[in-house]
């Protein structure tokens, strides 16, 4: 079976089998999107209103900004893979609870193991704290963190602010764009190892 079919089957399985509490209040599950052959996996926090409606991650204003930044480094959405820690929208866009993150964790691990990315890019503090609970994003944004995590196929994590935060806070916008532009050089270095 090729990776595209395997990924489709994986999402079909989890959309049925997920025991995430948020399933009761969300319109639908929002599996990851993009190529299963990606070197880069972007991980956000949780679906928002637009994502909940369409069933695709990062399709609202933050997603459009992410697409613009990808274009600036000569990539498109179908060159990468984009997913979230939590696959169902929390009510009123509140932060996902620890229990909800845990309920979706195996789905995320299964995605990462199927894709086998060279680099995981966390978008925002929730995604970062999922892997690095003691770090502060203000100290780690724009840096590569290496950590072997059981069940995760890569140890390379690049930390970025969330595109939504940059939309609401102009001072973060320039920082995020600058950090984002480091991705091609970073990826080239990791591929050479």
Task: Please supply descriptive tags for the structure shown above.
12% strand, single chain, globular, 9 helices, 193 residues, 46% helix, 6 strands, alpha/beta, Uracil-DNA Glycosylase, subunit E, 6-stranded mixed beta sheet
Oligomer: single chain
Order of helices and strands: HEEHHEHEHHEEHHH
**Shape verdict:** globular
What would you report as the Rg, rounded to the nearest angstrom? 15 Å
The tally of structural domains comes to 1
Which second-level CATH architecture applies?
3-Layer(aba) Sandwich
Helix proportion range: 40-55%
CATH topology: Uracil-DNA Glycosylase, subunit E
β-strand number = 6
Structural class call reads: alpha/beta
The mean pLDDT is 95
Beta content comes to 5-15%
**Which strand order do you get reading across the main beta sheet?**
1-3-2-4-6-5
Explained architecture:
By secondary structure, the chain is an alpha/beta fold. It has one domain: Uracil-DNA Glycosylase, subunit E (3-Layer(aba) Sandwich). Helices cover 46% and strands 12% of the residues. The protein has nine helices and six strands. It has a six-stranded mixed sheet, sandwiched between helices. Helix 1 packs antiparallel against helix 4.
